[in-house]
Specification:
globular; 33% strand; 5 strands; 41% helix
Amino acid sequence: MTIKLKKNDNIYVIELDGELDLYNAYKVKTLYAKMAEKGINSIILDLENLDYLDSSGLGSMIYIFSDLKKHDGKMSLCHLNGAPKNLIQMTRLDKLFLIADTIEESVEQVK
């Protein structure tokens, strides 16, 4: 899995490419921990190129969401499709997470 970080005003976009699974979930949590230390509290996870998501990857998303919520922050998932979309819908986390079709919609959700 590769992770790219982009900044859009005061909102950070984390692009995930590949598989967010047991072997990679810690990478996302580690990146988020560094961001949280700097006071960043508006995050978009761009999942357009995410091919696979398992329970560990989902756990890392829930961790980020929960921590941001404690600090009055927001997280939005963007470009959710394929197997990751199915897993999030099956676990009914689509009722919890902010989800958008485009980066622009996600930016509006986390402002």
